[in-house]
Write a structure and sequence with these properties.
four-stranded mixed sheet, 21 strands, six-stranded mixed sheet, 29 helices, single chain, alpha+beta, Ubiquitin-like (UB roll), Beta Polymerase, domain 2, 5 domains, Hypothetical protein af1432
Amino acid sequence: MSAVVKPHSSLPKGSPRPSPAALNAAAASFAALTARLDYLNAEDTEQVRRAYRFADEAHLGQLRNSGEPYITHPIAVAAQCAEWKLDAQALMAALLHDAIEDCGVTKPELIERFGAPVAELVDGLTKLDKLQFNTREENQAESFRKMLLAMARDVRVILVKLADRTHNMRTLDDAPREKWARIAGETLEIYAPIAHRLGLNQTYRELQELSFRHLRPWRYAILAKAVSKARGRRRDLIQKVQRELESTFTSASMVVRIAGREKTLYSIYQKMEEKHLSFAQVTDIYGFRIIVPNVIACYTGLGILHQMYKPLPGKFKDHIAISKLNGYQSLHTTLVGPSGVSVEFQLRTEAMHVVAESGVAAHWLYKAAEPNATGADRLGTKWLQSLLDIQHETRDAAEFWDHVKVDLFPDAVYVFTPKSQIMALPRGATVVDFAYAIHSRIGDHTSAARINGDQVPLRTELKNGDVVEVITAPVSTPNPAWLGFVRTGRARSKIRHYLKTLAHAESEGLGEKLLAQALRAEGLGTLPSAEPQNQLIWEKLLRFTGSRTRAELLTDIGLGKRIASIVAKRLMALLAERGEKPDALLLSRERFTAQETVSQGAVTLDGSENSSVRFALCCRPIPGDAIVGYLGHGEGLVVHTDACGVGQRLHYKDSERFFAVEWADDPVRAFETGVVVTVRNDKGVLARVAATLATAEADITHVEMADETPQESTDMRFVIAVRDTTHLESVLRAVKRTPSVLSASRTVPAP
């Protein structure tokens, strides 16, 4: 084992300076890591050494941007993991984390040499092949999805990843300048919040600081200079406060450890930006951390501090009784110290301090110190579990990442269930977020809510201390409008999953209707069932279409991804192979009526189709209109009026995507259409027209006034909901009789 070469400054006077090659060799040797592995047993240390040898050989000849051997990076990552006292498997994964991506090593090879757990960790850390994706954003989203899911299964994945990113940020000066903004921005937006969410505050602060230095170098330099000056001016004040603290706690016979705490440059910059403050107005740059023996001593110490200095009202927070989402616990208070300067104090126990600095990594730190301790086991596990829940509902990588980013905001509100159970939710969370946090079934069936006993709308934002009661009803279902105000990724993904499932179910029903209609044109009266005797036919048809199941095929037809007539022709060919013949009478009748306005097999619409059928906004068809159906690519059936210019152009370009549709005898809802009303510019004319529409039972869903200079007359354009064309005619007659109305007609679609 080679010895570690000390830096120049620590060499004895007169010693020969080591060459850069010697320094690189020392940094690249296993000895650079050995001193940190004293908590591992000999067998585990040897396993880590084996991984080092393999990684060293795999990266042989590769250099970093700085000119150092590449292996110095995996060693630095492993050293950071050793600081957190991670186990041998995690350290081996840290040393091997670039082996698959950069050295052509395969996962089976890693399994064979180091076992499946280490190979799984390395695989979770490996970025995906960029050739699989169309854009950088798509690739990045998929990479994060993979990493976060691996992390949900094993939190060591993200700990190694954060160690990797921390070392990359420490050495970012060696990277090309044009890469700084992208890497630092990604770190600030993604990795720093993940570190905070998992309670790794030391890493969180360092990642923020390094990102800030590379994103805003000038502002960073100016702030650093200002803080340095302020530090010099306030040195005497800080020392005085420290002496007074030590004297007072000694007098009270309390054994405490006092440490100064300085606000990071990035947090000062954030505060200045958010609150529009100058540097001089940021008062809490300095503070003190007081480590006490136990929880009781935290509150005793708080009393002593409040006797020493006057507390600032509203600046006390008890994070011991109600810990933060990431497990952080401390008492915070801001006091008016000597010379009227505000100073923040944090009181915590040694165990709380370890968790505050290391978060989920404290689990391994505890295991190293106290083998039976389980206090840190639960840290972050709720959030990690929610990642798996979101993935279960969301298969699209970009959407998954969109949900997860929502949950990375550190601020939280603490509310109570009616049974006094405390729940922590992101700031801005609503009643619906609360309902989904309890259980997805409660969220899905939420119909009303009470906060502190008062009935409130479901979009109401929760405040600290609220007692929230959710009222459910079996008939209630998620509303698409909820997506406009929910705050948590869990609620958002559950609502979207429900709506997608509903849309697919409706699309499957529409697809079945369309295929049955297309089969009638081929001379087959009914769609073959999914019974065992037809299984072979369906299997051959699915192979032809590339669909996995009958339901998926029908859904694809309903969404316009498959053409019903082509599928019907293939199905008839398969049935013919089995000896079935088309019904000659049905075939002749279908061909005869195909020239009529309505086909015998037309799809019937009654307004209950929801997302599987859309009524075109260009012509806004209503019952009574002659209509046609266009099966768009992936958007289901779009209904146009027969006279609509847009529909006619689509028919000219893509006639095979058009299907016969007809109105049901009794539609179940009203339909929107446009009307234009020309009026004299008299006082109160809009109110009179609106009142007439309401009296005629036409609901106004949108109104638009002409935006020109005042003239004698003007056009008012309404979108109104009516039952059918007969109802629309009676509404227009009533509007025409209204004083000041010159004319009223239905909006004519563009040719």
